[in-house]
Amino acid sequence: MNMDISSSAQFTQHLESVGGDATALKNFSFVPANGDTVEDVALQLRTENISHGRPAGDQFTLHALAEILISTRDEKAPSLPPDRSQPGEYQLEIYLATGSGTRTRVPRMHLNDAKVWAQKRIDGAGASFGAIYFPTGGSDRRGTGSLVARYDQNVGWYE
User: Fold this and answer.
1) Residues whose CB falls within 8 Å of the CB of residue 32, separated by 6 or more in sequence, listed in order
2) How many Cα atoms occupy the beta-carbon half-sphere of 150 within 13 Å?
3) Number of other CB atoms surrounding residue 110 within 10 Å
4) Which end of the chain, N or C, is less packed with Cβ atoms under 10 Å?
5) Per-residue exposure over 17-26, b if at least 16 CB sit within 10 Å of its own CB, e if not
6) Angle between helices 59-76 and 7-17 (to 10 degrees)
7) How many helices (H) and strands (E) does the chain have?
8) Shortest CA distance to 105 belongs to which of 85, 125, 77?
9) Per-residue pLDDT tens for 27-76?
10) CA 40, CA 37: separation in Å to the nearest integer?
C-alpha cells in the first residue's frame, strides 16, 4: 500500500486489483451509516443491485466497493477522533492457540518493515498465526479493516 494516498484511494486500488471499477459506485444510492460494517454495506449493495435488475455482483468487488464507501464516509466525518485511519497505518492481529488474540497498532512504516516488526511480535507471543490489517475509520476491533497480509508459521507471509 502506498503511504502517500488516502485510505479510500488505497481501497480503490484494491478494488481495481480484484477486477472492479470505482465508476460502479455511481450505480448506488446507498450511503453507509456510522455503525455499518463492510459486510453490512456489501449486503446492501448486493440488495440494491438485485432490486434494480442488475446482476447481484461478485463478492470481492462488492466488498471492495463497501470499503471505499466506508472509508470515504470516515474521511469526511468531523466527529471521528484524530487518530482515525491514516495512509500507511497498519494493525497486527495475533491469533493465539487458545482461540483468543490481540490487536496492536503497528508503527507507520513500509509494509515490508511492518512484516518484520509483526513477525517478531507473533514469535514472541508463541503464536503460529497473525495478520496485518489496514484499519477502517481508526477502528482497532479484532477482525475489522482490510486484510493486507497473513502470516502462518509453517508458510511465512502471504497475501
Assistant:
1) 40, 41, 44, 66, 69, 70, 73
2) 10
3) 12
4) C
5) eeebebebbe
6) 170
7) 4, 5
8) 85
9) 888 888 877 777 788 888 999 989 889 888 888 888 888 888 887 777 77
10) 5
Nearest Cα neighbor of 3 from 128, 156, 107, 117 is 107
Q: How many residues in the chain?
A: 159
Give the rounded distance of the alpha carbon of 37 from its chain centre.
11
- DSSP conformation letters of 39-104: HHHHHHHHHHHHHTTS----HHHHHHHHHHHHHHHHHH-TTS-TTS--TT-EEEEEE-TTS-EEEE
Torsion angle, alpha carbons of 97, 105, 131, 10, to 10? 160
Q: Is 148 in a helix, a strand, or coil?
A: strand
